[in-house]
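Batch manifest, entry 17 of 40.
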Amino acid sequence: MDAGIELVTKTLSRLGIKPADRVLVVRVGTQTMQFFRQGKLIQGFVISTSRRPPSCVQDSLGTPLGLHEIAERIGAGQPPGMVFKARVPTGRHFREMPDAEQETNLITTRILRLRGLEPGVNQGDGVDSHARYIYIHGTNHEDRLGTPVSGGCVLMNNLEIAALYEELRAGDQVWIGE
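Output type: structure tokens
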């Protein structure tokens, strides 16, 4: 059994939560993510996490560790590269944005908003992933994938997040580990 899936299973058991059929395993150390369905590896991805050390603390800008679930799926039907502001499509592709905005990590294509499932770790006062607006989303800097460059979110290739979005549902689980 994959070590990531094993950690998910142990954490779910400890928390008394039923395992989902679909699980994402994010590995900060290798800047990779795997998609599992019923414990079987379906696909792997090169991703980017925070440029700062992993952290669940509010305002740390670190990618939060531990078990999460997909709380919201945002962006169905939008074209790859669509920029979102406050989870709403702007109607503009990232290449249409002003140069100063293109220098930042824009939220593009699809958003999978995460909710922490571990009280006191990534859920609750001062450490809440949902309140921190932690997402898995597309990026306007696909050339930087594989290196830690985000402000806490998990960044993906635009075409890959669009395809993965179709496979996932709210309630599917996401494990983020070092």
